[in-house]
Amino acid sequence: MSTNNLSTPASGRFSLSAAALHILAMVLMLMDHLWATLLPAQDWLTCAGRLAFPIFAFMAVEGYFHTHSFRKYALRLALFAVLSEVPFDLMYGGTWFYPVHQNVIWTLLLGLLGIHLMETVRKKQKTWLYLLTALLVVLIGTVLGTLGMVDYYGTGVLTIFIFYFFRGRKWWCLAGQLLALYWVNVQLLGGLLYPVHIFGMEFEICQQGLALLALLPIWLYRGRQGYHSKPFQYACYAFYPVHMLILVLILQYLTR
């Protein structure tokens, strides 16, 4: 496992900043939610939306290692998780209270709490204790994510842990991300299969497997923060509940 900060990009090398990744993830999420509400016939929107969560999961882990106060970071996530629940319930359940599915910020928060526990133990420099803690955190986090019915369930929490355990730019970290995300998205989540015909050959592509394409912009991130300000930071948080609420209001207006 690598827990060192990602290196600053070399001069002249193209890279995506943290701000650019956040904006990209929000656009992809909006496309997915447009499919879920106003444009259900446009399957390409939800295919593109498969890339959003891995980017959010990756940036949440990076945020953990770059934040000056995990307590404030966690409290901020908890606040927006609560604020987002009603808009999320209205969008996915059509009602103010939809207890069988919780919004994605709870997924991120659960994963980050597990990472914080593992990092606290790791700093004690007792390898056996860290490995035991990591095993328990992964198992318990996956179970809690599934039982708590957070977005993407236990596999969502696993995705966050994947970016924690394989954090870095060494070849084995990148390979680990690819293989682990393939296992989570294709083998565990699965989903719709699309037939593809190329050069006379026919095969099927798993829709959820498109999430692996998120690794392309993720790998273009090399630690550069990009534009940052408090208003921008809170605008990124607020985008989640606000855009869901707007989509719900538009849908209700069109269907009344």
UniProtKB/TrEMBL annotation:
It holds the Pfam family TraX. Keywords: Membrane, Transmembrane, Transmembrane helix. The chain crosses the membrane at residues 12-31, 43-65, 77-98, 104-121, 128-144, 150-166, 178-199, 205-222, 234-254. The keyword Membrane applies. The keyword Transit peptide does not apply. This is Conjugal transfer protein TraX.
